[in-house]
Amino acid sequence: MAMPLCGHQLNHFFCELPVLLKMACEDTGGTEANLFVARVIILVCPLLLILGSYAHIARAVLNIKSMAGRRKAFGTCASHLIVVSLFYGSAISTYLQPVHRYSDSEGKFVALFYTVVTPMLNPLIYTLRNKDVKGALWKVLGRGKDSR
């Protein structure tokens, strides 16, 4: 993208595309339209593929005879879906809104969320699936088995 930027200072953590488009000194309508199509392809298509694969997984899990097996499978899927939802939800809210509606302060929070918070939560969410780790966390928090 080669477009002149007005003499503004970049008030963000990194060069976020909506921020750069707001700083442009020329009309960005055509560029925004092209970027919107690219963003849909990059964000929405993978999300739809993930959700489609989870529909197949859910159908297979429902065919499991034992309730304990179903619960375990759904628990594993749920933790992954939480991470996917956090990442894609924040990325989509940032990149699929019109530039004129983009808020700098909200944009900073969401950018921080999907670049720092979600990757930090990812190992925690998956680790808490382990009973030993869960027990150790309860112990650190000062709650024994009987107070759960």
UniProtKB/TrEMBL annotation:
Residue stretches in coiled coil: none
A Pfam family it matches: 7tm_4
Segments passing through the bilayer: 36-57, 78-97, 109-128
Topology term for the membrane: Multi-pass membrane protein
Localization annotation: Cell membrane
Keyword Transmembrane helix included in the entry's annotation: yes
Residue ranges of domain G-protein coupled receptors family 1 profile in the record: 1-126
Keyword Transmembrane helix found: yes
Domain of life, per lineage: Eukaryota
Keywords, alphabetical: Cell membrane, Membrane, Receptor, Sensory transduction, Transducer, Transmembrane, Transmembrane helix
Family matches, as PANTHER family: OLFACTORY RECEPTOR (PTHR26453)
Protein name: Olfactory receptor
Annotated source species: Apodemus speciosus (Large Japanese field mouse)
